Amino acid sequence: MPSFSPIRAVERAIDVLLALNRHPVSSLDLLHKQTGIPKPTLVRLLETLQSKGLVSHAPQYGAYSLASGAKTLSSGYHGEPRIVEASAQLADELTRKIKWPLAVAVPDYDAVIVRYSTIPNSPLALLHSTINMRLSLVGRALGRAYLAFCSAQESRALFDILKLSTHPEDVLAHDRRAIGAMLRQIRQQGYALRSPGIRPVSGTLAVPVFEGRRVVATIGMTWIASTLTNEQAVEKYLAPMQELSRGVSEKLATL
Q1: What is the pTM for the complete model shown?
Q2: Which residue from 74, 127, 172, 219 lies 20 to 30 Å from 29 (Cα-Cα)?
Q3: Which residues pair with 238 in a beta bridge?
Q4: Radius of gyration (C-alpha) of the chain in whole angstroms
Q5: Above 90 in pLDDT, residue 69?
Q6: How far separated are the first and last CA of the chain, in Å rounded?
């Protein structure tokens, strides 16, 4: 619940924009009927939106319509924002059930970067936050799950980039045969685990998230190593993680 009362003027401005979006052109009468906003208030709202480049007005026809500036309202809504919107609620629900924290990561040049985390909902998290943490495509479970399931063309490009990396977690990228075998195993089993030598205090199990046939993100669950072996984590949590991945894919298709 919000901690304050909604700003009525903002609500009305959004109502007007939504109403304008339903028709190529709208009269003042039509907007009044659709929004219930008094006409004098409507005119002030429309003139304000017009001054911001969001609405155009043809006085000779008494018609209002959305202007090209309205496109900027959605220009930032793609890729990562969609992934977060599609995954946040579902990931939170799973963490409330299993208690372990989950992270949602997306590709970021030569790594993946965490864009959503359920750490605030987990009583078992080792870290206070992982938001914006960049993780190796080669050594980390979230990165491996992406690298294993991306397209062949993208994979080749990433290998070319990773060959130049001096990061210690990317060292396996210099052994094309070894990393190829690892990625084939991940594709076969449908999940990735973190390299054993990295942060042995914990483990991570990660699965890919697809939009259509294209992998767009990965979701990982992290646990305290002293409580579970890798095998136990996979046996107990792989199925709910894969179900979560499918749920996010389905949600993406509706956005």
Answers
A1: 0.78
A2: 74
A3: none
A4: 24
A5: no
A6: 23
Which tokens belong to 62?
């008494």
Question: Are the C-beta atoms of 35 and 42 separated by less than 8 Å?
Answer: yes
The sign of the torsion formed by the CA atoms of 127, 244, 219, 84 equals: negative
pLDDT in tens, 1-33: 566 788 999 999 999 999 999 888 899 999 999
**Rounded distance, CA 106 to CA 219, Å?**
9
Q: Can you list the domains of the chain with their CATH numbers?
A: 8-73 (1.10.10.10), 80-254 (3.30.450.40)
Residue percentage of the chain with pLDDT more than 90: 84
Taking only the tens place, the pLDDT of each residue in 168-215 is 999 999 998 999 999 999 999 999 999 999 999 999 999 999 999 999
Exposure pattern of 27-48 as b/e (b: 16+ CB <10 Å)? eeebbbebbebeeeebeebbee
Location of structure tokens 């078992």 = 124
Taking CA atoms, 241 is separated from 61, 124, 233, in Å, by 56, 17, 11
Is 163:174 a contact under the CB 8 Å cutoff? yes
Question: Can you tell me the distance from the alpha carbon of 217 to that of 150, in angstroms, rounded to the nearest whole number?
Answer: 10
Contact yes or no for 167/136 (Cβ under 8 A)? yes
DSSP 183-194: HHHHHHHT-EE-
Look at residues 80, 11, 70 and name the one whose alpha carbon lies nearest to residue 255. Answer: 80
Under 8 Å between Cβ of 160 and 147: no
| 133 three-class SS | coil
Which two three-digit tokens encode residue 28? 């003042």
